[in-house]
Amino acid sequence: MELIYHVTSKQEWKIAKQNGFFEAPSLKIEGFIHCSQAQQVQGVLERYYKGKTDLVKLVIDTTKLTHELKYELAPSVNEEFPHVFGVINVDAVIDVVEIN
After folding, report:
1. pLDDT at site 100
2. Short-list 31, 1, 5, CA closest to 95
3. Entry pTM
4. Which of 22, 41, 53, 88 is the most buried (most CB within 10 A)?
5. Mean pLDDT along residues 48-71
6. How far is CA 78 from CA 3, 8, 34, 46, 47, in A?
7. How far apart are the C-alpha atoms of 77 and 20, rounded to whole Å?
């Protein structure tokens, strides 16, 4: 089992549970949902979520995803990140961790 992670707000996760899937704004804009590997989460938090509260980290089992997963280079940090090309089905989310 390979795990990837996505940071979102508690409210967005609540909506996802009601809908049965998680859909980030980037899906409509860029065509995929940005995710991270374990060692990349802290950098993502520092770059994009500094000072924000009420966040959770979705722990995603990649074997349960119903949409395509690709690792693609992010030139700004010269690292490959996991991208999900579709919504994330809630049953692929095996844990939700509060970020303090």
Report:
1. 76
2. 5
3. 0.94
4. 88
5. 96
6. 21, 23, 15, 16, 14
7. 33
